[in-house]
Automatic annotation (TrEMBL):
UniProt keyword terms in alphabetical order: Oxidoreductase
Listed PANTHER family: DUDULIN-RELATED (PTHR14239), REDUCTASE (PTHR14239:SF10)
Alphabetized Pfam families for the sequence: F420_oxidored
Domain of life per record: Bacteria
Keyword flag Hydrolase: no
Entry protein name: Diguanylate cyclase
GO molecular function: oxidoreductase activity
Protein source organism: Knoellia subterranea KCTC 19937
Residue ranges occupied by any Pyrroline-5-carboxylate reductase catalytic N-terminal domain in the UniProt entry: 21-75
Amino acid sequence: MSSITIFGSGNMGGAIAGIAQAGNNDVQTLGKADAATPVQGDIVVLAVPYPEVAGIIEARREQLAGKVIVDITNPVNFETFDGLTVPADSSAAAVIAEALPEAKVVKAFNTTFGGTLAAKEVGPLPTTVLIAGDDADAKATVAEFVEAGGLTVIDAGALKRARELEALGFLQITLAAGEKVSWNGGFGVVR
């Protein structure tokens, strides 16, 4: 059992909280109104839009040190909807890891939608959470809470793979926004 703090209570934050609770984890959800509330979790999930992450890091840098930070963001340029806002050789997860050198950053959940997390399936397939990170213990900790919540996990490799995961997440978002796939649909993995 883990102690998990989730920043954000939208579709993704709510779905991840449900997964964490299904695995009998202690869950704390923090929103903008909780600025004075201390972070309790050993695992911290950033379930907010990417532009909000910098403010959370700035306000809570000391509280986040030593934690496993789960970055679920896709740094989509919402003005043009035509690309990602991080450099081509980087990722949101890499930016977060650089800003929090004393934390262990894991990329996860960004290639799924809240509906498929809550339903635990994508069409006829089980929902698979792809994770990437440089710390094997941190990835194992995240995989454990995800699997305990009833989902499948695939380790996509080192944190540098976050760039490809973010590109996949961006593609899925643009397909859903263009009504090519449902917001309750998405990519599944056949093993």
